[in-house]
Amino acid sequence: MIENILILLNRIYRQVLLMYLRYPKIVKCNICNWNGRRFIDDNWLKMVSCPNCYSGIRHRLLLFSIMDEPILINNIKNKRILHFAPESFLIPYLNTSKNYVTADYYRKDVDINLDISNMNDISDCEYDMVIASDVLEHVYDDIKAIYELNRILKIGGIAILTVPQKDNLNKTIEDLSDLSSEERRIKLGQKDHYRIYGYDFYDKLTKAQFNVHIIDAKTVDKFISSKYVLIPPILGFHPMVTNYRKIYHAI
Which end of the chain is more exposed for a tag (fewer CB within 10 A), N or C? Predict the structure, then answer.
């Protein structure tokens, strides 16, 4: 009974919030097309989360990076796509492919359960596109995972990747030891992270024989970046925050 009341109150609060934020129409979510006064806060940053679909900066920037590439979006129906840890609000944009497969190590609401660092059941050069947004920091051996991504992609195929990157950090901080959840949260930003990435993530990809194209707020038109909120309106000051999100197209 109490749980039902809380659910109802949450729905009412959300509807009131959406009505309050409806005007003036300053920002827009390119995923669900909601637009209004501003986005709402998340656990790390202010005014960055869509109040309708709860997309964050990395999700909107990731979709923009795909939609802004005619070669990618125009041929997506003919591509074999593997999507790790699939975000529900991104699935409709990708599921137009006849060969769209969702994957995760633990989740039950996906097509296959799969370890991204050990994909022996997948043949070489099987996929045209792999998407893994904020996945590799959870993987014990991220280097092996990166090489596996290279192996299963066709020549000219693309891995679309995001990782949390601490501001102004050159070298990735990694700890594979038996830390407690709280120690991981303090040292690496989240209780289930093995690392917080630095600028050297680019080098990890190039060493695995990828050609890498980076898309971030600096490479996007300022009007688009502001409208879709592809950079925090107010920078966060938490020592582990990622203020400047990057999308890596690894080809």
Answer: N
